[in-house]
Amino acid sequence: MLKKRRKGLIASGILALSLAVAMFSPFSASAVTYYTYPNNAKMIGGVGSYGSHLRYYWINPNAQQYKSLITQARDEWVRTSATLTTSIDIGLTTTKSSAVFEIHYESFSPWQTGTFAETRLFLNSSEDSRLPFPPSQNYKWASIMLNGKAFDDASSPHIKLDTQKAVISHEFGHAFGLAHNMGSSANSSIMRANDWYVHKPGLIDLQTINYLYG
Amino acid sequence: MLKRGLTIFTVCLLLCCAGCGQTPDNGDFSSGIVSGDLASGGGATGAASQEDVSSQAGQSGTLSETPSETSSETPSQPDTGNTNGEQSSKQEEQSSSSQAPAPTQGPLKLTFYGSGQGGYEKVGAVGSAPSFARIYYRVSELYEDSTDILHGTVKSTENFDETGVGNTLYQFEITKTYKGDLQPGQTISVMTSGGYVRVSKMIEVFDNEFRFSDLTEAQKQNGVYEDFFMGVPIPEAGEEYVLFLASTKDDDPQPPFPSGIYVEKGTFQARFVKREDGTFSRHVPPYEPEFFKDLDTQETPKQSFTLPELEQEIAACQE
Q1: Handedness of CA A55, B161, A40, B72 (dihedral sign)
Q2: What fold, for B104-283+299-318?
Q3: Do residues A211 and B33 touch, judged by C-beta distance below 8 A?
Q4: What is the CATH T-level fold of the domain A33-213, as seen in this structure?
């Protein structure tokens, strides 16, 4: 009788413990930290849909000299099936009004500041267009600005000649909704704030895209 | 026996459910995802002591909490220079209406470089996320890259939007010099990122009027966006700084920038702002509380100094 009761108690305990582990496991098993904007603000309409819904980027004639690098950076965000498939599908357009990403080569800040580039996020509605930073609401379009001479001279110690492509790729990441990666995965992320160790999106960046856009 | 087992089971189940009360508000519990950038909204309130700055910054990047919905307005205002203070300050900013009136509160009096002062309607805001040549974690790193290091006060500010992007040009009166040829008593022009930008200027520079098709003609002519550079406050008259600057005198910036100006090295990274308690510290981007964490060492160097401490740091670089 006593043995049976003990067995019953043990069985109940194990069951409850299993349940507890199962319920808490998402926190302990998945230690991934995704660096996104507050409220996971992202681009309205998404960044593509696995080939069925293309979003477009437009390159200002003043940035044509960097078209090849921009294309490479774009390809490295789109053709990722070897690492992880995401919904990103963006194509080049010459019709600016069709684009949700504008890319400019514009000296917007004196080069001595050391700002290589920046991405600006807009929501063009007069009713609710007050998009603060950090953006805590979704946005409609993004403007990537390559900062003139500062961008021309961009160099980072670990990737040297690939720095300009890394900067473009980094800014694409911002335009997609990724914030700076300040965590332990920073060295394998194109969203590290500077001194990149990689020159294209890493697994963590693609995972973050899937986290945001599914 | 069965009853007792069931009781234990129920208690465990209740405990589990209590634990689940910490589920992120965004419903991502099922995926177990945590979002580090949400840390700035992670419930920290009230100003931390200055000693807290270096120890707390860099620790809160993996919180799993979702911030409460923030106001759509984030007027610029000096912060307290620390992670918790940033959040506290932001909350105060959101409740304040005196710093940056909403569009319905009448025209903003703004001064634009080359155009003088005028009344403008704020029609929106834009957030900027940059990539930097260098993140300056330490005073010694700033020292290396600066041509001039100064202590002084902001006398006046004006917006510079000739590039279609918001910059602020401010007059800075020097009270003490630590590096470079400038002398106390001189006033120089310093440029930094962030400020107001006219809609008309954005349309002129980027030729994309269709982006603003929902604005009235009056708003296109007289509207301004507030350009937040990483959400960091822009300089205001009366503020006291220790600045790490780069001179442009030997290599002028390309037009349309004014010649002979000084720029903050690394923008806001170069600006140690005097706080209410008398210490000097830099603004921390509100959504990146770990911004000054050295990613290679995973440590955040000391970020808040009394003036003598900061001067000592600078002096140590000179030796």
Answers
A1: negative
A2: OB fold (Dihydrolipoamide Acetyltransferase, E2P) (2.40.50)
A3: yes
A4: Collagenase (Catalytic Domain) (3.40.390)
CA distance B208 to A96: 8
The whole-angstrom distance between residue B251's C-alpha and the CA centroid of its chain comes to 28
Tell me the pLDDT tens digit for each residue of A10-34: 666 665 555 544 444 333 345 788 9
On the question of pLDDT at B143 being above 70, the answer is: yes
CB-CB under 8 Å, A39 with B67: yes
Please report the pLDDT score of residue B35 as a whole number. Answer: 33
| pLDDT the model gives residue A5 | 62
What is the Cα–Cα distance from A170 to B60, expressed in whole angstroms? 23
CB–CB of A113 and B264 under 8 A? yes
Question: What is the ipTM metric for this complex?
Answer: 0.81
| Beta carbons within 8 Å of A17's beta carbon, 6+ residues apart | B12
Give the whole-angstrom CA distance, residue B68 versus residue A136: 10
Task: Report the residue from B29, B32, B264 with minimal CB separation from A29.
Answer: B32
Q: How far is B73 from chain A (nearest CA, A)?
A: 6
Please write the tens of the pLDDT for every residue from A60-87. Answer: 999 999 999 999 999 999 999 999 999 9
Q: Is B259 on the interface with A (CB under 8 A)?
A: no
Q: What is the mean pLDDT of residues B25-32?
A: 27
